[in-house]
């Protein structure tokens, strides 16, 4: 059979289960990026079925396809410009009216549409029964019942997609679409005729839909009419303006508001025909759970407990696979030492690449567990509750709960978290949220905490790691309050957030979300971490013509080794330290060491912090090179042993973790701050204040720690 290919777009409201259905359809055959020219996430996957190769595109979640937000424009433009073979409108069956608003808008576009009626089990529990055959009859649209989180209906949806895509039946007739009443329909008809006469097919969109959008004063469509219709574009817009004015005079209201009312009236008619509501089959579980989890008194302590539990699990469960990977990296290092002849190349492979990259990759299990916990919060619906709970706390710094969502995302990575501030309506709120976002400890900092907390606070490592994240949140609140008072005075924007119903997450979705985020960490292993490790190794290995002091001359070491002296380990260690201190990186470390000495960080730690400016994972990679351990040891245990022998104390370890938490974020985050604020002033301010704050807080922690610890 010849392979047939076509493209399907998934559209739907936020919390309608669209992403779950996308994951059910595509599984691991996904790739994630950004839409061209914007920072809105683009997900695309593939599915093969009965000889068909189907590309599935997950459009951004929106409540409509007007031109009010970048997500709405992206979703609409893809349908209009890319012309997918089929558009699947995902509809929450338990909230039919709101979801049909977007679905009926999609029906107005010239495309083949399928309604995927998701969460029919939730609707049934609420006593809602929907006659899908009636919806099909009224709108001439295939309707597929689904329960996405149980993977029910996925096969039916695929079969319907193929059937509709292959069908020679054209676009459903206008009679099956929204009718806006005599006066508005008359205005639409006049403008449609005028466009057909003037544009001569220069406008790529359906004339009726274009007329509706012009009467709704859609700015994007107006721009495209001007660009596409040439000299007639101005005349078309003038005709539309006159039509708008006439409708305003008739209804004493903006045409877009009147048309919205008509659309909801049309939806109400569909619901009256197709939906029956009976008694609820059970008590609303989500509402009862919220009585506890969003309680004014108990809510925040419960949230803090969940976060504490997340880091306890991250450290405790991650210890075992971390040891296995560490042993594996150690075995690779030993094997490489035996296979490669002694010399500069062996040093590069063993001490540079394997020690550097291996020192970071051992923390992959912990990173994956962290992302799994975050995915669990998101998929159950608790993430929205966390933002709701933090609304009162965020008001202390002049923000609202919606700003806390990008901050929570910062636990994963600060780059997409800062991009997520685009959802904030106020420019002041966006900039303030961006400035304090790097204080939320990203996953790249976690390996540093795991290493140092596991080395110096083994019994209480989970609590120490939790305290780092808690310190970041507290500092974000305090610094945000200060910045709001000094730079961003004004009223706090009101906050309304939808609380989706609690849902049982599927194992498949959790794994997909965890893997998508963990892939970024793995990609760094073969990219920036590998390059950084090689650079650090080079700087630590050269120059090689070092003048050793008398007691540590290589010749004496060779003599001792031939004699089988028991002092060989001490001689070797002293020789290695002296060689490292006189290398390029040692000289750099000695140069900047006075700045870090008051906070208990030696020259090697200073260099690690410096390389961390590129990517925080390089802190561990640099340590892996600078504290290179004896061959034959478990990689992670060798590094822990080397740190203990280096003179680092519990106080200096705490100081180091605090400095890494607060100081300037990685280059990628700085670049994102510059792009999202569109200001070098705020970017440089972010760098300056974070480094200064990091040094001050680390100084307090170190000096206090020397007394207490």
What does the secondary structure layout of this molecule look like, with pairings?
Blueprint: E1 4-12, H1 18-26, E2 30-34, E3 41-49, E4 52-58, H2 70-82, E5 86-92, H3 96-107, E6 113-118, H4 120-125, E7 128-130, H5 132-139, E8 143-145, H6 154-166, H7 182-199, H8 207-215, H9 219-228, H10 233-251, H11 255-274, E9 275-277, H12 285-293, H13 299-339, H14 344-361, H15 364-380, H16 382-395, H17 401-409, H18 414-419, H19 427-436, H20 446-456, H21 461-486, H22 507-525, H23 528-541, H24 554-563, H25 568-581, H26 584-596, H27 603-611, H28 617-626, H29 635-645, H30 650-662, H31 667-677, H32 680-708
Can you offer a commentary on this structure?
By secondary structure, the chain is α/β, with parallel strands linked by helices. The chain has 3 domains: 4-175, Rossmann fold, CATH 3.40.50; 178-251, no CATH class; 301-544 and 562-708, no CATH class. Helices cover 64% and strands 7% of the residues. The protein contains 32 helices and 9 strands. Strands 2-3-4-1-5-6-8 form a 7-stranded mixed sheet, sandwiched between helices. A two-stranded antiparallel sheet has the order 7-9. Helix 9 runs antiparallel to helix 10 and helix 14 packs across helix 23. The longest helix is centred in the middle third of the chain and has 41 residues, at 299-339. It is elongated, with a radius of gyration of 30 Å. The mean pLDDT is 80.
């Amino acid at each position: 059979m010849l392979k047939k290919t076509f493209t399907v777009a998934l559209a739907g409201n936020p919390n309608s289960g669209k992403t779950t259905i996308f994951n059910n359809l595509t599984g691991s055959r996904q790739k994630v990026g950004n839409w061209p020219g914007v920072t809105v996430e683009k997900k695309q996957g593939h599915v093969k079925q009965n000889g068909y190769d189907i590309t599935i595109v997950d459009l951004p979640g929106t409540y409509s396809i007007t031109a009010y937000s970048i997500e709405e424009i992206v979703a609409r433009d893809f349908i209009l410009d890319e012309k997918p073979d089929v558009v699947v409108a995902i509809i929450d069956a338990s909230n039919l009216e709101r979801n049909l608003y977007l679905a009926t808008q999609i029906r107005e576009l010239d495309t083949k549409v399928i309604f995927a009626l998701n969460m029919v089990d939730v609707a049934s529990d609420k006593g809602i029964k929907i006659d899908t055959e009636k919806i099909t009859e009224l709108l001439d649209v295939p309707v597929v019942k689904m329960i996405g989180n149980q993977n029910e209906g996925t096969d039916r949806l695929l079969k319907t997609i193929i059937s509709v895509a292959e069908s020679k039946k054209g676009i459903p007739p206008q009679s099956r679409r929204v009718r806006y009443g005599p006066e508005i329909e008359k205005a639409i008809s006049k403008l449609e005729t005028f466009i057909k006469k003037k544009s001569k097919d220069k406008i790529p969109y359906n004339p009726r839909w274009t007329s509706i959008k012009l009467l709704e004063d859609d700015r994007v469509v107006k721009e495209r009419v001007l660009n596409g219709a040439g000299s007639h574009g101005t005349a078309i817009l003038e005709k539309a303006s006159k039509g708008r004015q006439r409708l305003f005079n008739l209804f004493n209201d903006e045409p877009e508001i009147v048309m919205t009312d008509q659309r909801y009236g049309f939806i109400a008619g569909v619901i009256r025909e197709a939906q029956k509501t009976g008694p609820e089959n059970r008590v609303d579980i989500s509402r009862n759970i919220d009585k506890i989890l969003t309680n004014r008194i108990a809510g925040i302590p419960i949230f803090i407990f969940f976060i504490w539990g997340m880091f306890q699990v991250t450290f405790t469960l991650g210890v075992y696979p971390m040891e296995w990977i560490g042993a594996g990296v150690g075995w690779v290092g030993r094997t490489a030492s035996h296979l490669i002849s002694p010399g500069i190349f062996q040093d590069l492979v063993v001490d540079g690449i394997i020690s550097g990259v291996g020192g970071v990759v051992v923390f992959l299990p912990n990173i994956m567990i962290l992302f799994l916990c975050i995915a669990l919060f998101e998929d159950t619906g608790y993430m929205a509750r966390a933002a709701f709970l933090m609304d009162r706390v965020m008001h202390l710094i002049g923000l609202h709960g919606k700003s806390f969502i990008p901050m929570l995302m910062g636990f994963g990575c600060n780059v997409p978290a800062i991009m997520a501030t685009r959802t904030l309506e106020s420019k002041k709120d966006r900039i303030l949220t961006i400035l304090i976002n790097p204080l939320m400890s990203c996953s790249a900092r976690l390996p540093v905490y795991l290493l140092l907390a596991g080395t110096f606070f083994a019994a209480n490592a989970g609590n120490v790691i939790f305290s780092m994240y808690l310190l970041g949140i507290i500092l974000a609140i305090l610094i945000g309050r200060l910045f709001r008072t000094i730079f961003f005075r004004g009223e706090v924007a009101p906050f309304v957030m939808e609380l989706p119903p609690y849902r049982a997450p599927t194992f498949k979705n959790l794994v997909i979300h965890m893997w998508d985020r963990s892939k970024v960490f793995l990609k760094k292993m073969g990219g920036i971490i590998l390059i950084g490790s090689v650079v650090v190794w080079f700087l630590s290995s050269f120059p090689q013509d070092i003048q050793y002091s008398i007691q540590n001359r290589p010749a004496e070491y060779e003599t001792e080794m031939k004699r089988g002296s028991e002092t060989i380990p001490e001689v070797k260690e002293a020789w290695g330290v002296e060689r490292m201190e006189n290398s390029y990186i040692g000289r750099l470390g000695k140069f900047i060491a006075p700045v870090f000495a008051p906070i208990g960080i030696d020259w090697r730690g200073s260099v690690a912090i410096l390389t961390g400016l590129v990517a925080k994972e390089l802190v561990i990679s640099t340590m892996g090179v600078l504290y290179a351990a004896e061959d034959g040891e478990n990689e992670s245990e060798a590094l822990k042993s080397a740190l203990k022998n280096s003179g680092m104390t519990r106080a200096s370890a705490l100081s180091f973790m605090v400095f890494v938490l607060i100081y300037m974020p990685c280059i990628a985050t700085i670049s994102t701050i510059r792009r999202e604020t569109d200001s070098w002033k705020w970017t440089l301010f972010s760098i300056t204040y974070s480094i200064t704050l990091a040094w001050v807080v680390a100084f307090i922690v170190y000096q206090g720690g020397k007394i207490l610890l």
